[in-house]
Every structure is written in C-alpha cells, then in structure tokens.
Amino acid sequence: MIINHNMNAMNVHRQMGMNTVNSGKSMEKLRLGLRINRAGDDSAGLAISEKMRGQIRGLDQASRNSQDAISMIQTAEGGLNETHSMLQRMRELTVQSNNGTNNSDAIQKEMDELKSEITRVASKNEFNTKTLMTSSLGSKAADGTVTVADLTAKGITTSVVGVKS
User: Fold this and answer.
1) Range of the domain at 116
2) Origin, by domain of life (predicted)?
C-alpha cells in the first residue's frame, strides 16, 4: 500500500492555522484597545499594570474620603456659625442688662433659651449619623502607612464657651 503525502498542502494548512490564531490575537487587541489582554501577552507588564490599577483605585477612594471630610467640616461650620450668632446675641443681652432700663426677667428668659438652643445645636449637628460637636468624634486620613491628618473634635457645650446659668 502506498501512502501519498502532499507536503506542500500540509505546510500551507499549518501556516493557515498559525495565521488564524495570530489574526485572532490581533483582532482582540484592536477590539479591546489594550496592549496586554492576558498574562500570555506580557506577564511582567500585566503585573505592573494591575499594581497601578490598585493604586489608582486607592487614590480614587482617598479623593472620595477627602470630599466627604470637606462636607463634614462644612456641616460642622454651619453649626458653629449658628452657635456664634447665639453667643453674639447673648453678649448683646448682657450689655443691655447693664444699662438698667430693660426688663431683667425677660433678658434672663431669652438667655436661658439661647443656652438651651446652643446645647441642642451641639447635640443635633450630625453628618452621616455622627454627632459633630461632641468629644466622641475622631477621624484620620492616611495614604498608605503615613498619617496625613488627625482630626479630633472637642466637645462644644455651654460650659466650654463660658456661659453660666
């Protein structure tokens, strides 16, 4: 029995298979727009790329955390501005009470209401369910292992600002 081999046809078939695989890889790169699609393309480049992607995700989260901190500080600032306005009014009432022409009972009543309002603002000024104007709040912002900031709120009460009954 004679077996005929067509070596040229077999060689063309093998080359055609390799060209099909290579064109498939090229089409995948064009379709995805990436130089590295899998570890087989460039394993070292893929490792570097994934490390950089992780760093980018970490920096994006740090940016979101910073924006949240800005919002929290703006909320606390609103409460402090309100407290400042009330303290200014209390100062005005104190000056008025010294001239002797105003009703001291009415002034004392307004002072007591302002004092309780300052306490209420301090206890109700919240951001993301955390009370901002009490001594229980503390937060840290960090990049890797280096601490960037340590923000600790001191309690705001009527005794801290020197308001007495």
Assistant:
1) 43-127
2) Bacteria
Angle at 155 between CA 123 and CA 84, to 5 degrees: 75
pLDDT tens, residue by residue, 58-74: 999 999 999 999 999 99
**75 with 132: CB under 8 angstroms?**
yes
Q: Is residue 47 part of a domain?
A: yes
Structural domain total, the chain:
1
Tokens for 23, please give them.
């064109």
Q: Which two tokens stand for residue 35?
A: 């130089």
Whether 70 is in a domain gets the answer yes
In this prediction the pTM is 0.57
97 occurs within a structural domain: yes
Helix (H, G, I), strand (E, B) or coil at 127: strand
Phi and psi torsions of 65, nearest 5°: -65, -40
Q: Which residue(s) pair with 138 in the sheet?
A: 152
